[in-house]
Amino acid sequence: MNDKQIISYLTPAGHWLKEHLIYFGLFVLCFTIGSLWLIFIDVASTEKSDWETFSAIARNLGLLLLGAIGLPLAFWRSVLAHKQTNIANRNATNAIEQTKIANNNTANALEQTKVTRQGQHADRFAKAAAMLGDNKLPVREAGIFALQELAIADPEGHYFPVQNLLCSFMRDAGQQDREKAGMDRAKPDADAEADATQESLEFSACKSDVITALRAFSDLRTESNMKMEEKRKWRPNLQEANFNFFPGHSNPINLQRANLTEALLQYANLTGAQLHGAILKEAQLQKAVLMRAQLQSANLERAQLQQADLVDAQLQKAVLATAQLQETNLTGANLHGATLIFTQLQRANLTEARLQEADLTGAQLQNASLAGARLREANLKVARLHGAILVATNLQRTDLTGAQLQEADLTGAQLQRADLTGAQLQRADLTGAQLQRADFRRAHFQMIRLSKVVDFTDAKFSPPVWDKSEWPKGWLPSDLQKNILGDYFTFIRAETTGQTEAD
Fold first, then answer.
1. Rounded to an integer, what distance in angstroms lies between the CA atom of residue 123 and that of residue 131?
2. CB 435 within 8 A of CB 413
3. How high is the pLDDT of residue 168?
4. How do residues 10-51 score in pLDDT, each as one tens digit?
5. How far, in Å, CA of 196 to CA of 202, rounded?
6. Which residues, other chains included, contact 477 with Cβ-Cβ below 8 Å and sequence gap of 6+?
7. How far apart, in whole angstroms, are the C-alpha atoms of residue 194 and residue 187?
């Protein structure tokens, strides 16, 4: 028999006891008084009163009385406590049910609110998108701001739609500029104005609404939104967009991983811009300001960067193959591991630039300034450095095979272990240069004096030996050394041979 069955049997008795409690109490009292009276008469009738016995009997009877009274009361309290527990449990169960109902109502309300909000957001998006097609500039800019606010309010639902729409808007604006230039060229007098039209296309300023769109696009690329982009592997598409004369922004423009192929960015202010991994193939960046720009791993193949300002720009592992960087300012720029194959760098300023392990095969560096630059272990095979300034430049372990260094200024250059096999060094200045273990086999030294070179230790030269007047001061040629790659000799300090230059 379980607890519920026991309670079901005892509960009627409890109700009866509660209703007849006064009668039960009178019965117990009368029974006790009668019992005491009979005991008293029995004791008094004995010839010898045994008060000790009487006292013990009275005490036992009192205990019996207390038990008779306390047992029903204890039973009643137990039953009452059990009932209260059941009531409390039922109340708790009801409370839980009420909570569940309330939670369900809340969830339904939230779902309804979410559905309502989604509908509102969809309506806002449609209205803002329509505003972008308006003929009035203020209306278009208002639409851009509305889209930006929507993406902030609902990033999970509308960040990507808003960004895609802004990109499309900027691309379309650039396409319109190009089509307008094409229509101008189609006029009857196009032949006479072709050059001027092309000039206006290349240097026409981007419109105010495009500036607003680019700033909004950049501001929306917060850290959390960038994580969503990486998760989706989303790349902004801004091909052929026109950002000429972009005036900049209060915050660095964020164009990471953006596709800016053939984009127009002449004279654009992109100071400190975030362009990690961006695609800028064939982009027009003439005279653009890219000071301290982050261009790590960016692709700038065939890009036009003439006279651009890239002071302290970060271009590690960037690809600049066949790019045009004539007269570009790259002072202090970091091009560690960058690819500059056949890049045009004539008259470029690369003072103190970091070009370690960079690939400059066939690069055009005529009259470029590389003073204090770091080119350790760089590849400069067949590079053209005619008239280049390489004062105090670090060229240790650099591959200069076949490089053209005519009239180059290598004053104080560090050429330890450099490979200058077949290099053209006519009229170059090697004053104070460090040439330890450098390889000059088959190099051309016409009209060059080596008398001011600091150290020739173990440097390799091909015969014939120069005239004594051209020998480096304090050094004498060694015997000819046979080698599979070509015979060579080295210079040895005169004091170690025991000979003198006069000898």
1. 12
2. no
3. 96
4. 556 555 655 665 666 666 667 666 666 666 666 555 554 555
5. 10
6. 461, 465, 471, 489, 490, 491, 492
7. 10
